[in-house]
Amino acid sequence: xSAWSEDIGYLRLEDTNTAVPLSVExxxxxxxxxxxxxxxxxxxxRTLDDDRLIGSVGFFDIEWSNRVxxxxxxxxxxxxWGQGYGFExxxxxxxxxxxxxxxxxxxxxxxxxxxxxxxxxxKAGFKREGIFREYGERDxxxxxxxxxxxxxxEWPGEPGSKRPRRRAAP
Length: 170
Known about the structure:
The chain has helices spanning 8-14, 24-34, 85-100, 115-123, and strands spanning 41-46, 53-63, 68-75, 105-111, 127-138, 141-151. By secondary structure, the chain is an alpha+beta fold. It has a single domain, classed as Aminopeptidase, CATH 3.40.630.30. It has a six-stranded mixed sheet, covered by helices on one side. The longest helix is centred in the middle third of the chain and has 16 residues, at 85-100. It is globular, with a radius of gyration of 16 Å. The termini are far apart.
């Protein structure tokens, strides 16, 4: 994770906060803090072949009484971009959110010019719900933040969902 924090391009796609590199020690502190709260839960995304950590996916600002949460994810290792890891990780996270955590709604946001993330979220069933116009600034340019939501009944894995499930190949 420390190495990913040195990739300013990745950081600028992942978050709207200031892109700041993390030392190994600070990355470890960040990981520990993610697991100390009642309102967040984060998982590493690892390859099956060699168990290499390539990203993370998690839930934050969980409101258990309302059964809602925000979702965040990123593939930090560029060598694994465009190979389906993001979709697989997101699919597993959605199943976990709706089947294990019993959530009803997930929200997320994406920087408007992050076309790859937006395509991924829409492919997974998220609906565009709004835009924070000119939300942030980078390199003297303003950018929008796009807001997405997914309700349990819209999730393709939910029985009786409003969206047809993909059929497995024979």
